[in-house]
Write a structure and sequence with these properties.
By secondary structure, the chain is an alpha/beta fold. Helix content is 56%, strand content 14%. It has twelve helices and eight strands.
Length: 273
């Protein structure tokens, strides 16, 4: 039996499958997608195996990663429950891993009633940066045993940072870290645009902007210093940096970022209903 099956390999499921292949090896990963060509293309890229159906994934692997939209989770669980029951009868228990935003474990569990036993259900919320090993993933263990959680952390070990959180923090985490890359990319692009306006060639401007954001993030994480302190250390009195910071403040950068996260959080709650 393989380690992990990814049922649904869109942007998030595919990114996590890439990280899992780095962590435990492609020989321990299987993928399935309702559109077979997408799963086949990913399997060719990673060297892992494609299965023909979601139920085949149950037979193939221990950890079942559900990479479908929140409104597809409940019917998928009901489809998988009889197969999970059959594997339990021969001594193969499964762990269900949901990536759905806004859908709590208690709302998923009734749809596994057909499994005939208490199936461990875990929620993870990665961001797409897991595809390059620089992701941020929240893990809510629910009532799953420690051994199952450690096995899941092994699968996620090459994806970036993994943090265990309580379930009430999953939706705020998703709004910030799950959606966050999409908030950062336009900022990188805008910095590059500014560089082009100042005379830099486009390719270099984009490289410099991306590396600058990467480096600034590393400074926060690796030094432990507050972003405000780090900002102050760059801003000399009357200098060019503080002039640029004043423009960001004047155009509402902070307020826009805060409202983006709040809007994403509200939408997460709506999707879970």
């Amino acid at each position: 039996m393989k380690k992990a099956a990814f049922i649904g390999v869109g942007n998030m499921g595919g990114a996590l499958a890439r990280g899992a292949c780095r962590a435990v090896g492609p020989d321990q990963v299987v993928v399935f997608n309702r559109t077979p060509a997408k799963a086949e293309a990913l399997a060719r890229e990673l060297g892992c195996e494609v299965v023909n159906s979601a139920t085949d994934a149950v037979w193939a692997a221990e950890y079942l990663f559900l990479g479908v939209k929140p409104n597809g989770i409940r019917p998928l669980l009901e489809e998988l429950a009889p197969q999970i029951r059959d594997r339990h009868r021969v001594g193969e228990d499964k762990v269900v891993v949901s990536m759905a935003a806004g859908l709590p474990i208690k709302d998923m569990r009734p749809h596994l009633a057909g499994a005939g036993y208490y199936v461990p259900v875990v929620r993870v919320m990665p961001n797409t940066c897991v595809a390059v090993g620089k992701g941020m993933t929240a893990l809510c263990a629910g009532e799953a045993a420690e051994a199952y959680i450690q096995g899941l952390e092994e699968i996620l070990s090459a994806t970036g940072r993994v943090e265990r959180v309580s379930e009430e923090l999953m939706d705020p985490f998703s709004a910030l870290a799950g959606c966050g890359p999409a908030f950062v990319y336009p900022y990188i692009e805008a910095l590059a645009d500014g560089g082009v306006m100042a005379g830099l060639p486009r390719a270099q401007a984009l490289e410099y902007a991306a590396q600058t954001v990467l480096g600034a993030a590393a400074m926060v994480l690796e030094t432990g210093r507050h972003p405000g302190q780090l900002k102050d250390e760059v801003c000399s009195p009357g200098g060019s940096t503080i002039a640029g910071v004043a423009e960001l403040e004047g155009h509402g950068l902070r307020a826009a970022a805060m409202e983006a996260v709040r809007a994403a959080y509200r939408r997460n709650l709506e999707l879970g209903k």
